[in-house]
Structure formats: structure tokens, C-alpha cells
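Lab notebook, bench 4. Still working through the backlog of constructs that have no structural model yet. Next entry is a single chain of 532 residues. Request: give me the C-alpha cells for it.
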Amino acid sequence: MKYRSFFGLDTPALRELPGASKGTYVGFEADVEKRDAVVEAFRHAWLAYERDAMGDDEYHPISHMGSNLTAAGGIGYTVVDSIDTMLLMGLTEEYERARDWVATNMTFDRDANFNTFETTIRVLGGLLAAHHLSNEEPIFLEKAKELADRILPVFETESGLPLSMVNLGKREGVPDRDNNGLVSTAEAATLQLEFRYLSFLTDEDVYWKKAERVMAVIKAARMAPGLASIFMNPKDGKFVTSAIRLGSRGDSFYEYLLKQYVQTDLTEDVYKDMYDYTMDAIHSHLVQKSMESGLTYTSELVPERDQNNQMSWRLMPKQDFLVCFFGGSLMLGATRTGSLVHPVSRPPLPEELSETGQRDWRTGAELIKTCMATHDTKTGLAPEIAHFRIPTDGLERTMPYAPKDWYIKGARPGAPAPYDARYILRPETVESLFIAFRLTGDQRYRDYGWNIFSAIQTHCRIESGGFASIINVDDVPAEHEDKMETFLMSETLKYLFLLFSDGDVVPLDKYVFNTEAHPLPIFTPTIRTGFS
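Model written out:
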């Protein structure tokens, strides 16, 4: 048994890394009762959508209505985002109806602007995962190729960075006027898994070359500390002075640095090098500890100019819910880029990881602990944004009731809830719990996940069907917002299902998940990286 020596069964001394305990190890067998409860919740969400809004991009469970992203019509965001979850859960009848909708009703011939990034991760990624998990049902690859061909024109810029929007009907890239034509770093650097896998399937390298060019531009434009600001200019391929953070508009850039290395079966060292360099910078500049309990969190760097037009960077103790993907990502990275042996044990032995790997593992485990601390609310759900206390914040005078470690900015007893207080069914914490469990077999991660699932069931479930976002995580009974994000079925419930499933279901040594939780197979590439 490969776990015997690690768990002290053959040796008197037990060496453990944080976040993996002998006392809470349970192994990787399915928790059938909890897994099936998640399947029931998925069916509750899907059947309501199918009843009221089949084919529409989005669903509103309180009004029992669907809506589309453009006036020209939708492209089935919710349908395609959900299909691979159905396949994993064994929901054959639901899957067949969804597949038939794709085959007979889905069209991309819409004279309207769609977000390049969202369309790629949700629709292209969903089609590719559905193709694989359905034993290569041809319609999914046909639709994926058509969609990618319609998206390709976004890369026709001076630098090769993609434009933020695409008119699918006209097959034209469209600048984002709301951001003066800039593209966010996450939008530009979170297309690569999908386009490269499509190239692998079709043996047409144009998809990968267009997406890979983006990574070469980003590497060439690299800022001195090794971090990336959240906006780039498609004209010159340079970073624009803007905030540096692991949250919105930055998050999945950091995620895909690791995942591109993983997807290519650890063969493309350029992505490992970019990842390692960036993780060093994050630890040097962004990782902080909270004031009272020493919770680990990632701060933001915000550019400011003084009266003499001199720029400086201010550290802001603010962490988006979106950042909670990073704990699991760091732990995974520790076992891939930071391992001295391959594969490592589950959980890894300290001597199997390099010094950097142990650092990343430790930080990842501590970040998960912090993300779980932000679930310490009346609903048991975490807010959209958490701010952390620092000695100079002055809150003991202006907000004497503020907690000592973290708080929701703008929250006041009896006052309307600020935007930061909402929970919109986000998956990032349970994503990290899933990864951490698969790397350790530690029961604590299943316990955390079950607590979150139970809170969603209690406060977000609409009895007539579906789930809704809530306005304030610290208010009971919860006030609902009439929207069910597509990532509930694509990510949140999928990761919870996998958390309680057998460890052989979508194993981490054979699959990589895109940022919308669509599992894509790991493969040895036939096209080599074109930069170093």
C-alpha cells in the first residue's frame, strides 16, 4: 500500500505538509449519499431551466424566464455549459435532449457582439469537453470548429493580442469600447487550452498558433516584478498601467500559466518557467497575513500618481472571491512544477517537493483556510469581495464593530447591502477544495464542501426550480436576485459532484480543467511551442 510509510504505519515518525493530516485521511472512494445529493441539486437547476428557457443564454428562476446576451439572439450558453456535467453525472435523458438541441437549434449566425473570453471558455470549452466525454459525438466537434473559425478574426491585431469582443455573424473582432479598446490580461491569456486542444483534434495548427502567439507577446511584455497588470493594449502588445491582482481581469491568466504546462503533459518548459517566475513574484509582492489571526491572503497593487505626477503602487488588502481558485492551483502546481519525483504520493511527502514546491503547497493550503474563513457569515456563504484588516485602516474609530481579520466594505447594520456582500453561486472555493482533496484524500475538504453545498441549498434554492444569487451573505432570511449564473451547473455543482465522487472520475493526472471547469484530456503535443 503506497500510503503506509507516509501515514506512519511502517515508520515511527510522521512527516506532514500543511493541509494533509493523518488523522483526517479517508482516501478516494465515493461518498455516495453526498454525491447523489449534488446530482439531485443539478437536476433541480437544469429541469427548471429546460422547462422555462431551453436554449436561452441565461436563466431567471424567480420569474421563470430566460434571456439572451444580445438582441440578435443567444447561442445556448447554459445548454453547452451544462452538457459535460450531465455526462459525468450519468444523466442520460437530460444529456440526449441537450445534444438534440445543439444538433437542431444551435446557431452562431448572430449579427451581434459576444465576449471573446466568455464564449471561448463556456461554449467552445463546453463543446470540446462534451465531444470527449460523449465518446466523440461528431456534432460537438463540428460546432466547436465552426465557433472557433468565427472567433479567429479577433487575433487579427497589430500585436496578435485578441480583441475583447467578436461579432459571430460577421466573423469580425470588435474592440471593447467600455475599456477604450484595451483587452484584459485574463481575457487574452485564457483561450489557450481550448484552441490548442482543438488543434490537436483537427490537426489544423492555426488555432493553436493564434492563441500561442498571445503568450509570446505577454512574455515579451513582462513587467519587471514578474506580475501582470490587468489590461493590455492590442495595438502594441504592452501592459497598460492598471491594477495588479489575482481577482477579476487577472485571475485566469495565472491559472492558465500552470494549466498550459499540465495540458501538454509537462513537456513545454516555457510555461513552467513563466509560471515559476510569476509565483515567485506573487509571494514577494502580493501574499500577506491578516492582522489578528494571521490568515494568508493576496492583496492588490493599485497605481497612483501624486501631485507631481510621480507614480507609486499602493498595496490594497482586498481579495475577490475569484481568487479562491488559487489555493488549489498552488497545491496542484507544487506537485507538478515543484516536485522532485513524478508522480508524487497522495498526499505528497515533504521530501518529494522542492523548497519552492513546499512553499507553494503551504501557501495554497493556507489560502484555502482563508477562503473558508470568509464563509463565516450568517448564510455560510462568502461575499463577492473581502477586505482584510491592517493596523493603519482606522476602522476601530469609524467601524468599531468590524471583525479583526476581514470584513465586507460598506456593510452597516440596518443599511442596504453593498455590492461586495453578494454571493452569485461562484465555484472558486469548491474548485480548490476538489483539487486539494484529490491531492490529499483529507476529509476536511469534503466537510468544507458539504457545508458550502448545504448553505447553497438552504439560502439559494428556489423551490419552484433553480437557484438564485443572494444580495447579502450576512442577512437571513436571504434576499434573492433573480439570476442563476451558468457556472452553477458548469462549475459549482460539477466540482462538488467530483469532490464526493470516486478518485478515478476525471483524475488529475489525465485531465486539465479549463477555467469554466470543462475537463480536457492531457496529451503530448504534436505542435511544438514557437517561442522560449
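Notes after review: The chain is about 40% helix and 10% strand. Residues 32-53 form the longest helix (22 residues). Flag for follow-up if needed.
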